[in-house]
Amino acid sequence: MQFGIFSVGDIAPEPGTGYTQSEAERIRNIVAVAQRADDVGLDVFALGEHHNPPFVPSSPTTLLAYIAALTQRIMLSTSVTLMTTNDPVKVAEDYAMLQHVAQGRLDLMVGRGNTVPVYPWFGKDIRQGVALALENYNLLHRLWREDVVDWEGRFRTPLQGFTSTPRPLDDVPPFVWHGSIRTPEIAEQAAFYGNGFFANHVLAPHFHFKPLVDLYRRRFGHYGHGTAAQAIVGLGGMSFIAKNSQDAVRQFKPYFENYPVFRGSRLEDHMAATPLTVGSPQQVIDKVMTFQEGFGDYQRQLFAVDGLSLPVAVALEQVELLGTEVVPVLRRELAARRAPDVPEAPTHASLVSAKYGDAQPRQPRPNPNRGDNLSGTSPYQDSDAGVEARFPEVV
């Protein structure tokens, strides 16, 4: 079971003082939160992609590459990578490069996004959002698995003899989660490929996403990837932790109720009706245990802890409490309940092992005798022997 945090990089005025972080400050603070998550032993740090104020993470690969250089073991991911307004060729190249830079500590969550103005900024039509997401991911899937791709679709120019570079690390693509808030077609696509499905039910009514998760599980089994119980599921959540529930509510209430999205609503109402958990470490543990009861065994739990204008010192304390007080208990308790045949969340190491067994992974090397890709044959050599013969001094 993987536990981690996700950030959307939002900026808002602090209640009381009205202080608003600059973009530069917010970016530095995101990095600090990711480093602390690594330090306390959390498994995943995920960063959302946004192109509209008041959010700053418009280039997740840039920021995650920097975080990769500053951390030791934590898995880096996204929450979400937009498959609608991004060119799938550029997604293939950027995230393969990041996979190399992070030395395999990478997966990504793809989705369509629902911010209406963003679509025309990138020349897209939100009314085509689902079709764009499906077609673009189908192409991305091929670009990471085929050295040479011929392709034609509705939403971008055709490809002829195209090779995406660099090839994925060890010729094994990053694992992909599909994130969706209401779209069965996205759950179907995740199941078809045997990818993961992430339900960010953070502020939705309790178990609002269960029908979508159940659909994904059934279709995962239908496509022959395993039983429904073996499907790869992730869940989102939001928490605020203090010594006791009274202190937690008192501290968090002004941040929640003054945040633009929630202004005019009561924190206590959201706590009662949604997975939002504000309380002691044990209360957070108890709430997350209900997720397993409702959705079944799952592989990844992410928490949002650094948004809603929380000062960075408070966000870092939240990461510390998750890593030291909450997650160790959840690991133990959820492991004790877990069915014996439920797989772990895929990692680069597990995917390499599944593909190659004990054999050495393929290391794609461009063929120096090929100057183009248009013949339809691979522009890569199949072994290292040719390189050793031609360039013995550098091998």
Summarize the structure.
41% of the residues lie in helices and 15% in strands. The protein is α/β, with parallel strands linked by helices.
Tell me what the structure shows.
The chain is an alpha/beta fold. It folds into two domains: 2-361, Luciferase-like domain (TIM Barrel, Alpha-Beta Barrel); 364-395, no CATH class. The chain has 13 helices and 14 strands. Strands 1, 2, 3, 4, 5, 8, 9, 10, 11 and 12 form a ten-stranded parallel β-sheet that branches. It starts with a strand and ends in a 5-residue tail after the last helix.
What tags apply to this protein structure?
395 residues, alpha/beta, 2 domains, 10-stranded parallel sheet, 13 helices, 14 strands, globular, disordered C terminus
Categorize the overall geometry: globular
Strand content: 5-15%
For the record, the CATH architecture of the largest domain stands as Alpha-Beta Barrel
Distance between the termini: 40 Å
Q: Please report the first level of CATH classification, the CATH class of the largest domain.
A: Alpha Beta
User: What's the Cα radius of gyration?
Assistant: 22 Å
Mean pLDDT: 93
Major β-sheet profile: 10 strands, parallel
- The total strand number stands at 14
SSE ordering = EHEHEEHEHHEEEHEHEHHEHEHHEEH
Helix tally equals 13
Compile the SSE list and pairings.
Blueprint: E1 2-7, H1 23-39, E2 44-47, H2 60-70, E3 75-78, E4 81-82, H3 88-101, E5 107-111, H4 118-121, H5 129-143, E6 149-151, E7 159-162, E8 175-179, H6 184-193, E9 196-199, H7 210-222, E10 233-241, H8 245-258, H9 267-273, E11 277-279, H10 281-295, E12 300-304, H11 312-337, H12 348-356, E13 365-366, E14 380-381, H13 385-390
Parallel strand pairs: 1-2, 1-12, 2-3, 4-5, 5-8, 8-9, 9-10, 10-11, 10-12
Antiparallel strand pairs: 6-7, 13-14
Helix pairs in contact: 1-2, 1-11, 2-3, 3-5, 6-7, 10-11
